[in-house]
Amino acid sequence: MGEKQIDAYVKKWLKEARQRIIRSFDDILYIQTKSDKSDLVTNIDKEIEQFFIRNIRTVFPGHHIIGEEGFGDDLKRLDGTVWLIDPIDGTMNFVHQQRNFMISIGVYEDGVGKYGYIYDVIHDELYYAIKGKGAYFNDRAIAKLREDVAVAEALISINASWLTRNYCMDASRLIQLVKDVRGTRSYGSAALEFAYVATGRLDAYLTMRLSPWDFAAGKIIVEELGGIVTTLKGEPLKLLEKNAVLVSKPGLHKQLLTYLR
Ligand code: 2AM
Ligand code: CA
Predict the structure, then answer these.
(1) Taking the complete model, does pTM exceed 0.85, yes or no?
(2) N or C: which end of the chain has fewer CB within 10 A?
(3) 229 lines ligand 1 (CB under 6 A)
C-alpha cells in the first residue's frame, strides 16, 4: 500500500474524528473506570476507536489493529502491517478539561515503526512522522534533536504520583532527579509529552507504565528526529507489553539513565 495513501487517509480520518468529538460536547458523556479510579474510559473513546477501525478495515482489509478499548484484534505477533490506536490519550483531561487529549496512531510494518500521528484535537495541531521522510508539526518540518543538555538545565516531564511510594520504582531516585533538573511539568497525555520532546519543548519525559498504544506514534516521531526512546533500563521498548518509558534528547539520555538504574 502506497505511503501517500496511508498518510492521506489518516489525516482525513483525524479531521472527521475531530468533528465527531466536538459535536459530542453537546451530549451527555458516559464515564466508567477501568483498572482503578484514575483509569477512565468514556463512550467517546469507544466510538472514536470504532470509527477508525471501521475505516481501516474497509480501506486496508489485510491490516491488523490493536486498539486500547479492545475493538481491534487480539495480536500475539507484529507480522504484517499493524495499527496501534489510542482514540483518546489523556482521557482524564478529556473528562475534566475538554482539552489536552490526543488521538494517537502508529503504523508498524513487521514491527518497524513507519507512520506516527499525534493529533491535538482541540488545538487542531498534528504532529506526525513517516520513517525516513522527516517529522512535521502541521505542515512544518520539525528540526532534528541534536544539542546536548545538562541535567541542571533540563525541563523534564514526570507525573507527581511516581514520587510517592509505588510498585514500579524506588521513588527516592526520582526525587533526586527532580531536585537536580531545572524544572518539571506534567501534561496528562503521554502522546502530548512525546510530541513536546519531539518539538524540543521538553528535554525528556519519563513514566513507569505505558501501554503500546500510548507510545506507538510518539516513538516513531521522536526517533525520526534523532531522539531516544527506551525503557528506564535503556533497553528497547516491547510493542506488545506495558513498559516503563524514558524519552529524551540524545545528549541527555545517558545522564538520566544513571538516576534510574
Ligand atoms: P490514557 O488517557 O489513554 O489512559 C496519564 O498520565 C497518561 O498515562 C495518559 O497518556 C494515559 O493514557 C496514560 N496511562 C497509561 N496507563 C494508565 C493507567 N493505568 N492509568 C492512568 N493513565 C494511564
Ligand atoms: Ca486512551
Answers:
(1) yes
(2) C
(3) no
